[in-house]
Amino acid sequence: MDGIVTTDDVMGGEPRLEGRRVSVRQIAELVIDGGTPVGDVADRLDVSRADVHRALTYYYANPDEMAAVRERHREAMRAAREAAIDPPDAVTR
Q1: How far is it, in rounded angstroms, from Cα 84 to Cα 42?
Q2: Is residue 60 very low, low, confident or very high in pLDDT (cuts 50, 70, 90)?
Q3: What pTM does this model have?
Q4: φ and ψ at 59, to 5 degrees?
Q5: Separation CA 45–CA 48 (nearest Å)
Q6: Residue 92 has what pLDDT?
Q7: SS3 state at 4
Q8: Are 16 and 3 in contact (CB under 8 A)?
């Protein structure tokens, strides 16, 4: 899709807006999961409303790919939490 790119060494290969480090998944999570209006997402991420709609179009046009992207992201978050160093007991008291 025009304006959406995938680069293996940028953002883990997630589809993103061309020239930006804003992924289709991030936009979908804000708009679809979070209920944030398109205009607010555009302002927050400093992109155009057209870019937000382009990302959402890509998201809906590629459901299997986006489900796999979401799962990879969830797994990476789980691994990061497990690898995080817990603070010593003295700090948590």
Answers
A1: 32
A2: very high
A3: 0.82
A4: -55, -50
A5: 9
A6: 56
A7: strand
A8: no
55: confidence class by pLDDT, cuts 50, 70, 90? very high
Q: In the predicted model, what is the mean pLDDT of the chain?
A: 91
Q: Which long-range contacts (CB under 8 A, 24 or more apart) does 84-90 make?
A: none
- Which residue in the block uniquely carries the two structure tokens 């899709």? 1
* Beta strand extents in 30-81 (DSSP E only): none
The pLDDT of residue 18 is 96
All domains of the chain in start order, with CATH: 4-92 (1.10.10.10)
Give the separation between CA 40 and CA 2, rounded to whole angstroms. Answer: 23
Strand partners, 16: 5, 23
Dihedral sign, Cα of residue 12, residue 16, residue 22, residue 25:
negative
